[in-house]
Amino acid sequence: MYHHGNKVIDEHRQGEALMLTHEGKKKLYIESYGCQMNFSDSEIVASILSKEGYATTKNPEEADLVLLNTCSIREKAEQTVRNRLSHFHAIKKQNPDVKIGILGCMAERIKEKLLEEEKLVDIVVGPDAYRDLPNLIKEAEDGRKAVNVLLSKEETYGDVNPVRLGGNGVTAFISIMRGCDNMCTFCVVPFTRGRERSRNPQSIIDEAKMLQDAGYKEITLLGQNVDSYLWYGGGLKKDFAKASEIAKASAVRFAQLLRSVAEAVPGMRIRFSTSNPQDMTEDVLHTIAAYDNICKYIHLPVQSGSSRILKAMNRGHNREQYIELVDKIRKIIPDCGLSHDMITGFPGETEEDHQDTLSLMEYVKYDFGYMFKYSERPGTYAARHFKDDVPDEVKTRRLTEIIDLQQKHSLYRNQQHIGKIEEVLIEGISKRSNEHWFGRNTQNTVVVFPKENAKPGDLVKVKILECTSATLLGQIVH
Ligand code: 5AD
Ligand code: SF4
Question: How far apart are the first and last CA of the chain?
Answer without folding.
Answer: 38
